[in-house]
Write a structure and sequence with these properties.
Number of domains: 3
Strand content: under 5%
Shape: elongated
Distance between the termini: 35 Å
Number of strands: 0
Length: 162
Amino acid sequence: MFSKRTKSNRIDSTRHVVLQQLMKKVKSARNVIVPKSPKDGWIRTIRQALGMSGAQFAKKMGYTRNKISILERKEASGDITINQLKELAEGLDAELVYCVVSRKDPEQFIDDQARKKATEIIQKTHQNMCLESQHISNEAQEEQIRFLANEIKREGGKSLWG
């Protein structure tokens, strides 16, 4: 049988590999050039580019013209469901591409969050120490913040986001 430590190391190792794979996926999405959505939405724009009327598209989809009009307006306003959009795209022989793109590098986002949490903790501790006349230098506080931020990143989960 494996010792608890060996089992724990295996779990940590597996977790690390999984997190690295997820990080790679998230980073790859940052290379995507996201086109600006047309004012009237993609469905209406593609339909019109194909020279297809709303009534013709409705017939093709087995919908009423009114339903197509409502769905196109819902897309333009951002109120359409992903499943509805996917179905309409299929009707136009198009593919729905769905991607959430991180605004900043995910590792930087994690670093920033860990530093924010560490700073909050150290500042609270420092305030208590000042009340007890145990002031520490700015350099020492900065070193504590760096150390604690690294610990918070290593622990992840609730330590980082809780």
